[in-house]
Amino acid sequence: MQEADPNRCANCNGTHEAMDRSCPKRADFIRMRQQSSNPKSPVRKAEKAESSSSGVHAGGVPSAAVRSPGRSLDYERKSLYQLRILAKDRAIQGRVNTGTAALLVKVKDVEDQLPEFILVSSVTRIAEDAPVGTEVTAVKAIDGDRGVNNRIQYSIVENDGSPFSIDRQTGAIVTTAKLDREDTRNRMRAAYILEIVATEVCDVEPAPLVKTELTILITDMVLSGW
């Protein structure tokens, strides 16, 4: 911004000194100054409204706030914004001076997304004579918040009496008892339907979780050729 020339009038840009009685703009300047000093003046009210909306930092320097334009931010859709800020002075006379600045806004991710399964089979098979501790399959889920990446723990809903268990940390499903296609305690006999839960380990209450179903078919060792 250019500095004012002390040898020129700030009102009309003439070669006489500022506030010289011969200045043709002197009367206008005095009238505007009187209006601005009056708290009921429209000019004063407009200046006060503009000052309150923009804000003032320590030392009387006006400031401006950058706000979101009415819609919510979504880290998963866009995590970075590059803004160009334009500043203009309020010159009454002469050229209006401007300045620009670049502003980079990074959106901080919060825990607002459910976990997602990225590895899961809807149906899998295991032989009837598989030893206890055999791994049937494994599931894997990740935190739905791309910028947080919390750990995931796994569990099976209402697993009482089921010959399967899941590792809470790895998601591996293994047999915990000898399998029997003709077991009358299993109403589906040769199949088990497991409801698997992936829960995010975080400070949010209740913790975000997602469920999926896995069907395990018990194959006959004679018919399967095993």
Automatic annotation (TrEMBL):
Keywords: Calcium, Membrane, Repeat. The keyword Repeat applies. It is found in: Membrane. Pfam families: Cadherin. Residues 71-117, 126-220 form the Cadherin domain. GO terms for cellular component: membrane. Residues 17-31 have a biased composition (Basic and acidic residues). GO terms for molecular function: calcium ion binding. The keyword Transmembrane does not apply. Gene3D superfamilies: Cadherins. Residues 1-69 are annotated as: Disordered. InterPro entries: Cadherin, Cadherin-like_dom, Cadherin-like_sf. This is Cadherin domain-containing protein.
